[in-house]
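Hi there,

I know you've been waiting on this one. I reran it after we fixed the sequence typo, so this is the corrected version. Both the input and the resulting structure follow.
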Amino acid sequence: MTVFSRTLLSASLAASLAVPAIAQQNGIEPASTRGSTLHGTDRAGPWGESAYTFALKVSTSIYKTVNLHRKKKGLGELEADPGLGVVAGAYSGDMITGDFFGHFAPDGRDLGARLAEANVDHYDKVAEILWDATDSNIDWRIEETVRSSVTDWLRSPEGHREALLDPEARIVGIGTAIRDERIVITMLLGDR
């Protein structure tokens, strides 16, 4: 497996695991796009009535928006992948709870280690792109959060655009996490 890591330090966003029943109630395929807050901390805030619902909607909207951009470029749509969704969601949650941002966790784990830990290291290649926003840099409207993250990735000179528009990418997992005044998004794109 080849692991491609991408970093976007101008913005930051995180994700954690979603409960499948709640995801299904909201019309979201569980495990392919993830959104959460820390267990027991879902509450109303600048994001609306539920941090959890906001995070789920952000992940799902990013999935749709990225596929629209790919379609405009004549590329195939990405298929939501449950394994990548779990890893993306868990890592966004780790970045929120551990108060860090980057492709390496404080304990040194990288994407390859995280995929192996989740028993989903059977992909040919996986690219990881991250986004985060804090405090006054957050516009708590779903469409603005999605626009900001996807626009930043597409304008990035660091390979994010190439990862999103990679013709070999076939699958994706997206995780979004929020806590207090911080959002973190992890997107994993790959091929089987």
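Quick highlight: The chain has six helices and six strands.

Best,
R. S.
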